[in-house]
Amino acid sequence: xxxxxxxxxxxxxxxxxxxxxxxxxxxxxxxxxxxxxxxxxxxxxxxxxxxxxxxxxxxxxxxxxxxxxxxxxxxxxxxxxxxxxxxxxxxxxxxxxxxxxxxxxxxxxxxxxxxxxxxxxxxxxxxxxxxxxxxxxxxxxxxxxxxxxxxxxxxxxxxxxxxxxxxxxxxxxxxxxxxxxxxxxxxxxxxxxxxxxxxxxxxxxxxxxxxxxxxxxxxxxxxxxxxxxxxxxxxxxxxxxxxxxxxxxxxxxxxxxxxxxxxxxxxxxxxxxxxxxxxxxxxxxxxxxxxxxxxxxxxxxxxxxxxxxxxxxxxxxxxxxxxxxxxxxxxxxxxxxxxxxxxxxxxxxxxxxxxxxxxxxxxxxxxxxxxxxx
Length: 374
Description:
Layout: H1 2-12, E1 23-31, E2 34-42, H2 43-50, H3 62-67, H4 69-77, E3 80-84, E4 87-88, E5 90-101, E6 104-114, E7 122-127, E8 138-145, E9 148-154, E10 160-164, H5 170-187, H6 189-199, E11 204-207, E12 210-213, H7 217-243, H8 251-270, H9 278-300, H10 304-336, H11 340-367
Parallel strand pairs: 1-8
Antiparallel strand pairs: 1-2, 2-6, 3-4, 3-7, 5-6, 7-10, 8-9, 11-12
Helix pairs in contact: 1-11, 5-10, 6-8, 7-9, 7-10, 8-9, 8-11
């Protein structure tokens, strides 16, 4: 019973972490006259950091945002440092706007930097935004120097990046987005729970008496292989189409459909309707999950030559993260498949908890509310 309670509590704690991770979007354009920057920062993150909602009604108006423009600039620009030839650049705000991204509204801070050196040849970026508040936060960087576009990912684990006019190597940019793909599958709890819901019954077989342990490892392995391959192929297709702006879907629709997929996959473990055809379920809903993964890349607005590197790296990073999850799950599940604990606590209890939590996500995302359960 204690194990089951602990499982429920652990899953319940995930409710607060099932939304798009905290990202900002930093664009820099350097030439001989200086550096011009645009920094898109989510209003929800700024509200948490400095407070924007003056009347506490849950809605941030333009008037409330305008009243905080100087605070936003002071907070953000003290957490960004640019240096050229070792000399610090003086940053000054030039305009404040607001923009819509796939996951909500963002404050847009435009600024200028004077470095007293030839910043067009290269400069260094040091980024510490929200480092003291959110270790998962990432700054997605796009810089233009001498006509070359350079991309990178900044955060607590990589706060500094040296940019050169000749550009960073494609390999370095590929590795950046590969790491970002692994990171996003790790903190993309809804994606992980969907995959686990499909994998939980893989070591069992349905019978008239309920779930029975699988007799051999070979069929279990190939069942898992089909499920993971179908999920990978499906979300790779839609991730690519969405990142290349071939297909665009509303964020609320995508996030709601992802939550629904988790509910249905978990309920199927409690009342099995699909077992051997779970790979079809993985493929069908994997198409929706791909749109969720794509939001990071589409919001960055990379040019197509840089987007291709980012897309391939990010996608392979997601797959590497998935394989890591499967490599941990499968041996443990197979070793414990004959136990009462696996069938009752892990499969039945875990699936019930996942279905309940995903139902909360579905209501929150479909109706744009916070139920305040956590």
